[in-house]
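Human: Can I borrow your eye for a moment on a structure tokenisation matter? Separate attempts, laid side by side, tell us more than any discussion would. Could you pick a protein and write out its sequence and tokenised fold? No explanation is needed for now; the record alone will do.

Assistant:
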Amino acid sequence: MFGLIRRPTPAKPILNDRRAHASHTFPAAGPEEAGLSATGLARLTAVMQREVDTRRVPGLSMLIARGGKLAYRRDIGALRPGGPALKDDAIFRIFSMTKPVVSVALMMLVEDGRLQISDPLAKFVPEFASPKVGVETDGKLELVPAKRAITIQDLLRHTSGLTYAFTGNSAVQRLYGASQLFAPDPTNAKTLLVCDLTTAEFVAELARLPLLDQPGAAWSYSHSTDVIGRVIEVVSGQNLGAFLRERIFAPLNMSNTSFVLSPDKYERVAEPFERDPDSGKPVQLIEKNTRQRFESGGSGLWSTMDDYARFAHMLYLGGTLGNVRIIGRKTLSFMTSDHLGPGVRNGNPSLLHPGYGFGLGFAVRREPGLSSTAGTPGEFYWGGLAGTVFWIAPQEELIAMMMIQAPGQRDFYRQLFRNLVHAALV
């Protein structure tokens, strides 16, 4: 997969409209040199400016790199409604874009020889030794034994049988919603959910709930990556945040990525509209000053465009950035291959779109067609609840990223961004 990628030679860092990016992630390139249409990029800017001007979204940050060179970087609109202009050091809630980071971290431990993805989860988290599956019959929920153990690979590819409360209304998902895993913050109506458990306590409570499906039977978006975070803690002997800082964030100079924000960074946080522009309902997201003991491997990180671009660039280069190797080339190729195949049912087709499979932490494009947007077989991506998204298309030598905080409009803007980026390719 990665053999088609050109390794860029060192060059001076790119300047955006205001100042040099502190990350110096990519060397500079003009649009035409990078295989992008200047007209197409101007159209992308104009369309997104229109969306900001019509108050559909407070602000957007966008990045496009091709052939390892940054050809487009724009920050449009405001950091928060009525606030200052969005700048290139803005901090975003990236929610499920945490999952690829934590999945890479787990596979680093595989490369260390500390575990195998074929290992049963119960080897590391004994609470999952005898999972039960919830089966609904005539409106009644029956618990039956799992036919096989949940494996680490099941967690990585979301075939563990675990679920999320918000992805459906089955009896099992209603049990998730009624559990004490998360609760609204009684002191702040704007906060989405809080968890007053440690990661170990959270996973132990999760293990008490029934599975939605038999392990391996269905792709169901879930708390699986939260459980991966606990496995990392058990195997490494460190808490998840410390492991990520030591093995990924510090080596990649991702100094603005963390589970908890320090107060000196509060003013840099991008904020959504207080009310959804379509529904009029209050918008609830994790507040910047919320202190949760739970380090959610599935959704807990804050980051910046530059920080996450360094992570994406490392993926694009097959596991290295500069003189740092994070993960092996073949391991990464393995992760970004489809691990579902035709025998696994898609339990959340609104999340895993037609034409896509799922690897170990990433959705993977299988077909040039079927999906609602253009794409390239072999590309891999994921996004977050508030609207952040990235994808990497090795065959096109393309990295594209968008950072927004607009949960109700996330699907619209992801499709719009994809359409306009692909229209700009030459």
Summary: Residues 17 and 74 are 7 Å apart (CA to CA). The chain has a mean pLDDT of 92.
